[in-house]
Design a protein that fits this description.
single chain; 4 helices; alpha+beta
Length: 151
């Protein structure tokens, strides 16, 4: 499995992966506009030239980044690819000096298996919520917050 930064021609595949899971209520939908705007945040997993998983590490502040929009093609699920992407994000955060990584997710158990801890959303700074205002579920967010302190 090759893990690499996303390229412009990956956007449609990434969007399709996210839309698939959003349609099942397993993650929040993301617009193409968001993906183009934050393309540099995305990393993909590629198998034999095909993008089979994607996710993003989004920097929010000097000491905090978010893993967002993590999706693995159903036929590649349960093969460690999502965990591989999370590992890439943790290394990336470490490399640039960010000590804490969080996610807002419906898949808290997955993130806990990756070393994150379930936390109250109240421990996250208000800066986290700047994009939540545009979410159809705001202010009644039903996602769980998970956090990892990188050592």
């Amino acid at each position: 499995m090759l893990y690499r930064k996303a390229r412009i021609h990956d956007v449609e595949t990434i969007h399709a992966l996210i839309t698939y899971y959003a349609g099942k209520g397993l993650m929040l939908a993301r617009s193409r506009a968001m993906m183009y705007e934050f393309l540099r945040d995305f990393t993909v997993a590629e198998d034999q030239g095909n993008v089979v998983a994607a996710g993003a590490l989004h920097i929010l502040w000097e000491d905090l980044a978010e893993v967002r929009a993590l999706a693995v093609a159903p036929e590649y699920a349960k093969q460690g690819i999502g965990r591989g992407l999370v590992g890439a994000f943790i290394r990336e955060a470490w490399d640039i000096g960010i000590p804490r990584v969080f996610s807002l997710t419906y898949q808290a158990g997955f993130f806990q298996k990756c070393g994150f801890s379930l936390v109250s959303k109240d421990v996250l700074p208000h800066k986290v919520w700047k994009e939540c205002i545009d979410c159809p579920k705001f202010p009644n967010c039903d996602e769980n917050a998970v956090l990892m302190e990188i050592k």
